[in-house]
Amino acid sequence: MKALSQKRRHPLAVLALLVMALLLTGGLYAVATTTNEAKAETTTYSAQDIEEGQKLFLANCSTCHGLNAEGTEAGPSLIGVGAASVDFQVGTGRMPMQMQGPQAQVKPEQFNEEQTKQLAGYVASLGAGPAIPEDEYLDVTKGDSANGAKVFLANCAMCHNAAGAGGALTRGKYAPSLMGVDEARIYEAMQTGPQNMPVFNDANITPEEKRDVITYLKALDNNTNPGGFGLGSLGPVSEGLLIWSLGLAVVIGFTVWLTSRSA
User: Where is the chain membrane-spanning (predicted)?
Assistant: First the structure.
């Protein structure tokens, strides 16, 4: 009996095992995330780049994002957003914003390529985050357009349209057209989730799949409309509206013609 009692498990043993399993899972996830972020930050910035970037930041961005990029009521914190976010926002002219609105508008860039790199270097120095993508993942000749179409239709088409033509969202927001957009900007948008877009990190969509998506979009860029007018590639709504409008115009015209003959 004594031997049996010694083999009995303590009532809290199962709970202790569960806690240990959760801690182990969380630790492995943290290590994997840190590894991914470390892999992402492959671009190196000199001390001079970071210093010049800080000067540009204080002169142009600190009003909204705070003197230390900690964020204010007018703008979010930039600590940990990474160089890719800066390269996307500044490189497309979205930042600095021209005016407050539902979302930042694309406009001519206010900083040249070197200044954008310096700003990106300064923000990257504040905390680990997605880096500017490597050329390997922007080379559409290595991508799979068919797989890119599958990934795009599963994750992006509900906002950007199956043809990448963009579409309206709620409260004055919209998903922009992806036609004619630079490969790096598309990749960075998937990495960082600008505006209303979710973040697709490497665990959601791998770098190779991101390249496939870009390949698919570039294939759409080069496609013609074998059926005639593309009608903005907006699908059955625009096509149905055109058919109804033309049909109604024909009916009205025919009615006017018959009336004039009767008179």
Answer: 241-259
